[in-house]
Every structure is written in C-alpha cells, then in structure tokens.
Amino acid sequence: MHTINLIRKRIKIATTTAMARNEEMRESAVAIILRNPAPQTELLFIKRSERAGDPWSGHMAFPGGHREADDAGLKETAIRETKEEIGLDLSNAEYLGSIKEQRAMASGRNINLIISPHVFYLKEQSITSTNYEVDEIIWSNLGRLISGEYHDTETYVIGAEPMTCNGYRLEQGHFVWGLTYRMLKALFSTLDAKWKSPKEI
Fold this sequence. Notes:
The protein has four helices and eleven strands. It is of the alpha+beta class.
C-alpha cells in the first residue's frame, strides 16, 4: 500500500537529473496532484478542451503549461498553471518534489519541449473550476493505477496510419496515453523501485 508517508519518502530520496537544454528548448511543467489517505488516495487528471492546432487537443493530462518569464522556477510554473486552468490553489498543498522530466512528442516525433512533473498532496478538499482550456476534472484511484488493473490499449489514427497505444483506462472510461502515460510510469517507478510496467503491445 502506497501511503502518503511512503510516497513522501520515496520522492524525497529519488535522484532526478534535469534533461539537457539548448537555446531552442522550451520548458513546461505539470502538477501531479494527490488527495486522501491510502487506500483511497486519488490522482487528478484533466481532459483538455478540443482546440484546433493543439497537438494535445482533447487528451487526458495533468494541469500545467509553458514556463513564463516571471516564474521563479518550474515548480512555480506548475502552481500558476494549475490555478489558471482549474482554479486550484496549491499554495496550501504539501509539495512532495519533482520526478523524471520528459521530452514532449507530437505526431510521433520529439519536439523542443521539456516537461517537468511536480508532485503535490492536498491536505484539504478544494473547490475547482475549469477555464477554457479544460473540459473535465477527473480523480482516479492511485492504487489501481499502480497495480496495472486499469492498464489497457486504444487505437488512434496518427497521420494516416492506425496506431495501437498503451495506457490506462480510468473509472469514467477516459484513456490516458502518450506523454501523460510516460509520466505515470515515471511516477510509479519512483514510488517503487521494483515496479514493472504491465505488458505492453
């Protein structure tokens, strides 16, 4: 059972190395938000709005976005973007730390964007309200995700070709894949060094 105390400890002792940057590389950050004690610990996802020109239009994601010049760091980017997107103020949440950064991909190719995930624990229930970028807020059981119970596949048309993708099917039927799926696997590996990804297609 992954209690908050255990999660706190594992993230604290984890060794994370920042990905290499160059002048063309952009930075972004997301908030991985947990609530409730185990075994009822839940993880927050958002469903992004359908928007033309957005490579992640309609996808399941964590709240977050691009770093702005006024942000003191990527943690602050995650906090600011979360408040803008879903009205959730993380200033009263416990900051647990960051996990492995990810390189963004669009249409199956790497792009010059690095995403830094930052983990928070909500000690109190908070009111949320979405802006134009977010269609839904969904909470899902952390233990069932880690166990692989929710692991599934979905076929998408990427370019002109169908592609079967691995991911997690949440309780409400939403499918988490791609970048957010990779961040989930990085989180689970941080929480348990012996964790193994479910069999993938």
